[in-house]
Amino acid sequence: MAIHWIDLSIFIIYIIVMLGIGLHYFRRNTSAEDYYVGGRSIKAWHVGLSVVATDVGGGFSIGLGGLGFVIGVSGSWMLFTGLIGAWLSSVFLIPRVFELLKKKSLTTFPEVLGVLFDKRVAFVAGIISLIGYLGFTSSQLLAGAKLASATFNGISLQSSIWIMGVIAVVYTVLGGMKAVIYTDTVQWIILFSGLFLLEYLLAIMH
Question: Cys-Cys with 42: which of 38, 99, 118, 173 at CB 3.0–4.6 Å?
Answer without folding.
Answer: 38
